[in-house]
């Protein structure tokens, strides 16, 4: 999994006044949970651009001004309801020996037979919630849809891995090929041609 580095300043005062002053100075107040102590810090809003405004998932290396480095993942983010400026970010500290829970983006590989026959690929999930060690988690989870005909579904069990545990029920559908007009007849013709060949 990709990692980003954010250079940050540890916060001593965490009251409303101090937080407002930070935001006025273009800084984002942040918190890291999960370690021995809760760590409050701030960093310029632009430092989070590649972390927040992307479909990719990253681990984050937070380098504090006192020389401490903390590995973490983004847990929660709050935006201003009008301006969409980042108001606050929560991180969770990660450790080599402790599993973490993350939502990993899903993407398809292959070209579905049902789609070639005129069907439409519909997604139920764009991200899959998994639990595992940070070092074992992939940047993206891929699922092969080549054999999906019209009416077929791809389930979370089809993309299972020993590297992580999927936190959805086994019968959760990731995507499916839905029918469209003329699609069924075309697929039947394609099947007949394959039988003749």
What features would you highlight for this structure?
Ribosomal Protein L25, Chain P, elongated, four-stranded mixed sheet, 197 residues, RNA Polymerase Alpha Subunit, Chain A, domain 2, 4 helices, single chain, six-stranded mixed barrel, 2 domains, alpha+beta
Structure description:
- By secondary structure, the protein is an alpha+beta fold.
- The chain has 2 domains: 3-93, Ribosomal Protein L25, Chain P (Beta Barrel), CATH 2.40.240.10; 100-196, Beta Complex (RNA Polymerase Alpha Subunit, Chain A, domain 2), CATH 2.170.120.
- The chain has helices at 16-24, 49-52, 113-116, 183-196, and strands at residues 3-10, 27-33, 39-44, 59-64, 69-79, 86-93, 100-109, 120-123, 127-132, 141-144, 153-155, 165-166, 173-178.
- Strands 1-3-2-6-5-4 form a 6-stranded mixed beta barrel. Strands 10-7-9-12 form a 4-stranded mixed sheet, with no helix packed on it. A 3-stranded antiparallel sheet has the order 8-13-11, with no helix packed on it.
- Strand 5 and strand 6 (86-93) form a beta hairpin.
Q: What is the fold's blueprint, element by element?
A:
Blueprint: E1 3-10, H1 16-24, E2 27-33, E3 39-44, H2 49-52, E4 59-64, E5 69-79, E6 86-93, E7 100-109, H3 113-116, E8 120-123, E9 127-132, E10 141-144, E11 153-155, E12 165-166, E13 173-178, H4 183-196
Parallel strand pairs: 1-4, 2-6, 7-10
Antiparallel strand pairs: 1-3, 2-3, 4-5, 5-6, 7-9, 8-13, 9-12, 11-13
């Amino acid at each position: 999994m990709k990692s980003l580095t954010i250079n940050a300043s540890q916060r001593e005062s965490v009251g409303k006044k101090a937080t407002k002053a930070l935001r006025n100075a273009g800084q984002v107040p942040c918190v890291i949970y999960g370690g021995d102590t809760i760590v409050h810090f701030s960093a310029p809003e632009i430092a989070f651009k590649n972390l927040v405004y992307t479909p990719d998932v990253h681990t984050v290396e937070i380098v504090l001004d006192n020389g401490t480095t903390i590995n973490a993942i983004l847990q929660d983010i709050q935006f201003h309801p009008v301006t969409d400026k980042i108001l606050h970010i929560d991180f969770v500290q990660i450790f080599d020996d402790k599993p973490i829970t993350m939502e990993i983006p899903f993407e398809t590989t292959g070209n579905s037979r049902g789609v070639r026959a005129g069907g439409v690929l519909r997604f139920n999930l764009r991200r899959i919630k998994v639990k595992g060690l940070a070092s074992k988690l992939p940047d993206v989870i891929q699922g092969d849809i080549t054999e999906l005909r019209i009416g077929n579904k791809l389930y979370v069990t089809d993309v299972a891995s020993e590297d992580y545990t999927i936190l959805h029920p086994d019968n959760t559908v990731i995507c499916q090929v839905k029918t469209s007009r003329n699609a069924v007849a075309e697929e039947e013709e394609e099947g007949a041609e394959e039988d003749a060949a």
